[in-house]
Amino acid sequence: MTAMQSTRRRFLSMGSAFTGAAAIAGTTGLIRPAVAQGLAPTPTMRGGRNNYLPGAPIVQRIGGGGFWMTGTVRRAGDGAPLSGIRIQIWAHTTEGRERDPQSQGATLTAADGSFRLEMPQIVPVFGQPHGHLAYDSGDFETVFLRPVMSSARDTTLSADFVLQPA
Amino acid sequence: MRRNLLWPLLAAAIAVPLAVAATSPLLEWRDPVYIAAGLAGVLALAILLIQPLLAAGYLPGLPRPRGRRLHRWIGAALILCVVVHVGGLWLTSPPDVIDALLFASPTPFSVWGVVAMWALFAAALMAALRRPLRMRPGIWRLGHTALVSLTVICTALHAMLIEGTMGTASKAALCALAIAATAKAVIDLRSYAVLKRRDR
Q1: A152 shares a domain with A116
Q2: Which Pfam families does this entry report, sorted A to Z (chain B) (predicted)?
Q3: How far B113 CA lies from chain A's nearest CA (Å)?
C-alpha cells in the first residue's frame, strides 16, 4: 500500500515535471500551447466518488473529531490559491460507514486556499485506510479524490486540489 | 514429515488465522454483514489449503477415493464462501464492488480477487460438466488444475495486499501453505501429463 501511494505521488510529481519540461520546451520552441503553462488540474481518482452523498452541510467538525483532514485548493494554470471553495469530506470512521449521513461534512477554504476539517478517526475498510474528498460546486470542473493513509495509525490525511475553471 | 502430524498442523494453520481475524479490533467499526463477508473470505482462503490435500489423498484417514468425494462437497462450500464474500461486500458498499468487478477499482488487490473468483467458478463449472460432456481425463485434469492453480496464486496476492482483519504472519503462512500444498499435489498427481505426452 505504501509502495502504491509513493508510486502515485511519484507519478503525479513526474507528471508536473513533464508539464514543466513541456513549458520550457514550449517557450524555447516555436509552438506554445496554452495548456503547457503552469499547473495542471488534478484528475479525479478512481473510486473517488464512491458513497458520495451530495450536499452535506458545512460543519465545524464531523462527529467527535480527533482526526484532521487537510489540504489546499489552487487554480490550474497560475496556481493561485482559491478561497471560499466548498470541499466535502467523507470516510469510514470509528463513528460510521462512508455512506452514513453523519460520516459526511463540508468545509470552506481560507484566504490562502487551505482547508482543514476535524473528523473521527479513519479506519481501514475495503483493504485500505482511506478518505474521500469532493469539489462539486460548478464554478470549476468536478474533482473527486481518494487519498490513502500510509499507516492506519495516522491521525491526519491531506489532499490537494488544482481546479480547472468550468 | 510424519503423516500423523498433518491433521494438527492443518488445524493450526486454519484455526490461528481465523481466530486472529475473528478478534480483530477493526470488527468494532463494522456491521454484521461486512464482518460475515470478511470471514467468508478468510474461510475461502483456508479451504484452498484443504482442497489439494483432499484431492491428492494426503490426509490420514482420507485416502484418495474418500478424499475426492469430500473434495467435491468442500468445493461447493468454497463457492458458497466466495458468493457470501462478494455478496456481503456488495451490500456493504455497492460502488466499491462494482468497481472491482469491472476492473476499475483503485485498489490493486481487488483485481486479483476478481480473477481468482472467475478462475474458481470456471474450475467448478468444469467439475460440474465433466461427466455430462464426457471430458477426456487428461484434458479435465489439466484444465481443472490450471484453473485452481490460478485461483490459489491470485487469492494469495489478493489476501496479502489487503490491510484488513487478518494478521500478517498467520495470513502469509496460510497463503504459503496453500500454494505449497497445491504445487505438491499438481506434481504428485502429474496433472500436466497430457502436455508431456503431446511433446513426444
Answers
A1: yes
A2: Ferric_reduct
A3: 12
Give the domain extent around A26: 1-37
Chain B partners within 8 Å of A93 (Cβ): 29
Q: Which residues of A touch B96 (CB under 8 A)?
A: 47, 50-51, 126
Around Cβ B193, how many Cβ atoms within 10 Å? 13
Smallest CA–CA distance, residue B164 to chain A, in Å, is 5
Q: Is A72 in the same domain as A141?
A: yes
- A99 CB-near residues (< 8 Å, 6+ apart): A51, A53, B93
Joined together, the cell numbers standing for residue A32 give: 506554445
Please write the tens of the pLDDT for every residue from B86-138. 999 999 999 999 999 999 999 999 999 999 999 999 999 999 999 999 999 99
What integer best gives the mean pLDDT of chain B? 95
Test A126 with B107 for CB contact under 8 angstroms: yes
**Domain shared by A69 and A112, yes or no:** yes
Task: State whether B95 and A46 contact (CB < 8 Å).
Answer: no
